[in-house]
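1st attempt posting a full record on here, be nice pls
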Amino acid sequence: MSPVEKRSVTIRGHRTSYSLEKPFYDDLVAIAAARNMTLAALVADIDETRPRDANLSSALRLYVLDWAKGNARF
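the predicted structure (as tokens):
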């Protein structure tokens, strides 16, 4: 199993971090490239639409899962 890695990003001027396993991170990078956007912009989009009681890392994992199933919101 891939270890969880912590990464940092700036969203709307606020520095935050998220923790993801490498396969999820790699898929986020691929999704951002497919959408012709930066990874930071994709993370910001996902952050903006997640429920406030859900943490960012979980929201990112669920987005990758939705994308893989063809159900992505974007």
